[in-house]
Amino acid sequence: MSEGCEGPLVGRRKTMNHRPMPPTAAPDGDAVCPGAPLRSTTDDGGVAAAPVVVTIGFDVVMRVTVLLPLGGLVICFLTAVVFQFESVNKTFCNVSNTMPSISAITGFTPQRYVWRTCIALHSTPRFVIGIVYWYYYLQRECLVQVMMSLVYRHVANLTFSMYMIENACLIGITYIASVENYPVHEKLFITFMIASLLYELLTIILFRWSHPVMTSNITKSYNLKRFCFFSILLFTAAMLYFFYLHRYHCIPGAFTKFAYCEYIIVVLNITYHYTATYDFTGFDWHFVSRPRLKTDANDNHKAH
After folding, report:
1. 287 or 7, higher pLDDT
2. Torsion sign over Cα 90, 95, 96, 101
3. What pLDDT, in 10s, does the model give residues 5-25?
4. What is the pTM of this model?
5. N or C: which end of the chain has fewer CB within 10 A?
6. Cα separation, 184 vs 2, whole angstroms
């Protein structure tokens, strides 16, 4: 039975020398690729009984994943401003500053423990989500012109790599605070920003490329991705400008404006990743328990 490619994710199904089957229409109007199973099946075509232990909605996972850094940031900001205002607003220029940077409010104790805990819980499911997206795009390869199939696959792989680098650098700048090792923290932050922008740009290209027909949710996701990306570009340029004024000219208030831009970029970045709830509407995470199969080799080894 031909089914949509938006079911449980499978690996690559064809080679470059095999012409993909034409897409069909899903019930919700989206164009899908035939051949991707929606559920596990037995050899005779029947539906296999999946021993599901826990089922969690994808939207629930995304909301929790998003709220962890956002909630942690709010807690760190409020406690730092109320109890450590002078410390978190101090800069090497010794000029007036009324808005601490994210690195400052998450670099002192006890805020650093709160922030590190939130990022640890946040980053783990994000690695899984990155793999889900990777397979999702590979499964939609049949919707791309055959002559562009290889290019599409390379873009999908590059997008996946940028996603993983972004998440890894987020962990790095979290556990290597600027007050502990500024040179390393700075390099990780720069890498994080570059990887994040490249991922967001490539995703927009890949997303439009792999969705010749867009449902209302997919259209909403695509438009929100574009808005967040171009807004992040704008505020990143402003942030770099204010950082230059602060670092090399020590202009009063420049670091405050830099910090405002930094907070806006974080919120926009979180919103960008939250669009996954639109991309995977109606999807669930299933945690299953399967018996370990004993191979003949293992049995023979145990017998001896």
Report:
1. 287
2. negative
3. 444 343 333 333 444 455 555
4. 0.79
5. C
6. 51
